[in-house]
């Protein structure tokens, strides 16, 4: 199955990385998160309510909206700061990319693990720049804010195309589609991954290419 | 809202056209569309209040929130939106518009953006399921609206509004969006759309890119408004400058009245301008005040204590409209008469509603405290010394008398002095 892929390429200062990536991924996840399902009796359920909050950035002139779920924010922050640290470390390459991948699970025969099939991947590719003066920083603050604005408009455009999303499952298969571990919300299953050296290998296509390359080199 | 879905049920293959849209679906669609409009208005206006929004997730929602989104309802906005809809059957053939504008303390206004929600009947999707798909997609559309409201230029401006610089106003109306008020080179953005059997519901936005106010009065330079923390327009100095410029009719006019003096209007005679015999006697004549800048009608509305404005969550699902109407008598409305908006198909450009804003660091009734203090100072009784006008001779006579008494009491003063010296030595 082909996953939809979206790629954002940005360049910014190291200290802006966390906020920029969080702004983009939180906006995507906000659209890809449902209220918590509560099953009443067989076959019937109610959907909880998703709360939201405004987040102001410190190093970018930018405010974004995200689900008001502490748990979700923690998970996102943890992964993003790992990426940010790797990117900004002295021996880091100064460029890299981080991906937010939505996937669904497909049950396999015992003893195999369920297969994860991605259906939408959002990638942010970043290049770090170094600025010297405060004036340059101020300009960069505004510039990155403007760039993120464009990205938000693009995200909402994609979300309102109403392309493929996995079908609503029945109760038994709910956790093949949704992450049911959150107490307050129910996002589609997602994972974050990053690399700071060359393109990410999160998509199926890339994995296949890598396999073929490795086979040939052997 | 609670959705009960029978999971075992097969998705019915519907092959219906507009005409075949069954009554229940039609009713549902109308209801959903109406609430989409009401909630969209809430999202837009609340994003321009200058405050950050934070609503809680409710995993155990008992089925009260529309579109599974915790959008709070400000009663006043709900009233305005309902007024604009005029209780008609909502099909949004005529778009519902929310106009956001900026008003400076000088009274200049500038329309910043116009949001519109309308239906394009030519694009429809007869296959789509109303209760499930359309409802969920409306939720996604509102999420997109939430995201987009935070990234337009007006958002940053609204976060920096204040009673001494400018305030953000809103107006809700039915009609084609008026784009000529947005100046040259305005931008158009489509927030998103939902396909339904009767057409495509679409939310779009047009916003100003040139942030230049053309003065409505004469002889004033253009006021540039830029998103900048340190802009001179926002500083109090600017305010003072304008004030003194406009009131600069005579010297005595510009002078402020002291705290314990009487605020009386005096017509200045030629004689008064002659240098008086008694030095500084002019200080004794009451002066005209330049009134403090507290206009009552145009001043932004200070929101009532949080207890009263706490947005009330819409606790009904649309089928009990009575409660919604009950909610729509807002407490804050009674506190200030200046809030209103038109509910007309036409537009009146100058008919704006002041948006709530909070003065930083101010308590809820800080302004009235200041006002009370000011009035008390204004109404302080005049000192007796100034009430009795006395002739120069009397005053001079007084002086000699006083000097004489002082001289006679000279030894008293010396006693006091020497006793003071003694006590100091003791220490």
Automatic annotation (TrEMBL), chain A:
* Pfam families linked: ATG101
Q: What is this protein called?
A: Autophagy-related protein 101
The record's keywords, sorted A to Z, are: Autophagy
- Family, per the entry? Belongs to the ATG101 family.
**What's a GO biological-process term for it?**
autophagosome assembly
Q: Name one GO cellular component term.
A: Atg1/ULK1 kinase complex
State the InterPro entries in the record.
Answer: ATG101
A GO molecular function term, named singly, is: protein kinase binding
Automatic annotation (TrEMBL), chain B:
Q: For the region Disordered, what residue ranges are annotated?
A: 1-20, 283-343
Q: What Gene3D superfamilies does this protein's entry cite?
A: HORMA domain (3.30.900.10)
Q: Which InterPro entries match?
A: ATG13 (IPR040182), Atg13_N (IPR018731), HORMA_dom_sf (IPR036570)
According to its UniProt record, where is this protein located?
Cytoplasm, Cytosol; Preautophagosomal structure
User: GO CC terms for this protein?
Assistant: Atg1/ULK1 kinase complex; cytosol; phagophore assembly site
Q: Which Pfam families match?
A: ATG13
> Which segments show compositional bias classed as Pro residues?
289-306
Which GO BP annotation is one of this protein's? mitophagy
User: What main location does UniProt list?
Assistant: cytoplasm
Residue ranges of every copy of the Autophagy-related protein 13 N-terminal domain listed in the record: 109-211
Q: Keywords on this record?
A: Autophagy, Cytoplasm
Q: Where is the composition biased (Polar residues)?
A: 8-20, 307-343
Give the record's family classification.
Answer: Belongs to the ATG13 family. Metazoan subfamily.
Instruction: Write down what this protein is called.
Output: Autophagy-related protein 13
What broad taxonomic lineage does this protein's source fall under? Eukaryota, Metazoa, Ecdysozoa, Arthropoda, Hexapoda
Gene label:
LOC107220158
């Amino acid at each position: 199955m082909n996953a939809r892929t979206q790629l954002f390429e940005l360049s910014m200062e190291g200290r802006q990385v966390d906020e920029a990536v969080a702004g983009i991924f939180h906006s995507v996840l906000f659209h890809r998160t449902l209220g918590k399902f509560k099953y009443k009796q067989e076959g019937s359920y109610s959907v909880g309510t998703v709360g939201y909050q405004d987040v102001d950035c410190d190093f970018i002139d930018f405010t974004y909206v995200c689900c008001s779920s502490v748990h979700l924010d923690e998970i996102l922050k943890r992964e993003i700061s790992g990426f940010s640290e790797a990117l900004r470390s002295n021996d880091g390459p100064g460029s890299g990319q981080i991906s937010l991948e939505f996937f669904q699970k497909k049950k396999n025969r015992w003893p195999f693990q369920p297969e994860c099939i991605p259906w939408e991947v959002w990638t942010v590719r970043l290049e770090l720049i170094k600025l010297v003066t405060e004036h340059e920083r101020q300009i960069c603050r505004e510039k990155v804010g403007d760039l993120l604005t464009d990205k938000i408009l693009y995200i909402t455009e994609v979300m309102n195309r109403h392309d493929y999303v996995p079908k609503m499952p029945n109760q038994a298969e709910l956790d093949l589609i949704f992450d049911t571990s959150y107490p307050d919300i129910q996002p589609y299953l997602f994972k974050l991954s990053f690399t700071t050296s060359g393109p990410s290998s999160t998509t199926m296509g890339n994995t296949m290419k890598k396999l073929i390359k490795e086979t040939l080199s052997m | 809202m609670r959705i009960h879905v029978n999971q075992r049920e097969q998705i019915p293959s519907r092959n219906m056209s507009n005409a075949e849209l069954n009554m229940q679906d039609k009713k549902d669609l109308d209801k959903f569309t109406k609430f989409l409009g009401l909630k969209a208005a809430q999202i837009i206006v609340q994003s321009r209040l200058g405050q950050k929004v934070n609503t809680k997730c409710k995993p155990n929602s008992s089925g009260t929130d529309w579109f599974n989104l915790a959008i709070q309802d400000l009663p006043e906005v709900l009233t305005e939106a309902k007024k604009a809809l005029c209780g008609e059957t909502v099909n949004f053939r005529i778009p519902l518009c929310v106009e956001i504008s900026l008003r400076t303390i000088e009274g200049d206004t500038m329309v910043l953006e116009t949001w519109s929600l309308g239906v394009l009947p030519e694009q429809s999707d007869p296959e789509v399921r109303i209760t499930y798909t359309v409802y969920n997609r409306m939720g996604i559309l509102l999420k997109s609206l939430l995201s987009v409201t935070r990234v337009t230029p007006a958002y940053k401006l609204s976060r920096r509004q204040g009673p001494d610089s400018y305030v953000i106003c809103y107006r809700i109306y039915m009609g084609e969006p008026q784009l000529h008020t947005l100046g040259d080179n305005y931008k158009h953005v489509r927030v998103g759309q939902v396909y339904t059997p009767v057409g495509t519901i679409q939310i779009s936005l047009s916003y100003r890119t040139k942030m230049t106010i053309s003065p409505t009065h004469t002889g004033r330079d253009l006021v540039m408004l830029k998103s900048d923390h340190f802009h001179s327009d926002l500083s109090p100095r600017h305010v003072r400058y304008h004030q003194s410029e406009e009131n600069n009719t005579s010297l005595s006019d510009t002078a402020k009245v002291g705290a314990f003096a009487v605020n009386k209007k005096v017509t200045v005679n030629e004689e008064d301008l002659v240098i008086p015999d008694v030095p500084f006697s002019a200080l004794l004549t009451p002066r005209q005040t330049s009134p403090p800048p507290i206009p009552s009608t145009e001043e932004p509305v200070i929101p009532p204590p949080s207890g009263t404005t706490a947005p009330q969550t819409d606790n009904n699902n649309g089928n009990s409209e009575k409660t919604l109407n009950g909610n729509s008598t807002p407490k804050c409305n009674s506190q200030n008469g200046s809030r209103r908006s038109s509910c007309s198909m036409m537009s009146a450009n100058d008919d704006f509603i002041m948006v709530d804003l909070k003065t930083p660091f101010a308590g809820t009734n800080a302004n009235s405290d200041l006002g009370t203090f000011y009035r008390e100072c204004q109404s302080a009784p005049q000192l007796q010394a100034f009430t009795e006008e006395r002739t120069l001779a009397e005053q001079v006579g007084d002086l000699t008398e006083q000097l004489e008494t002082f001289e006679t009491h000279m030894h008293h003063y010396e006693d006091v002095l020497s006793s003071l010296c003694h006590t100091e030595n003791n220490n």
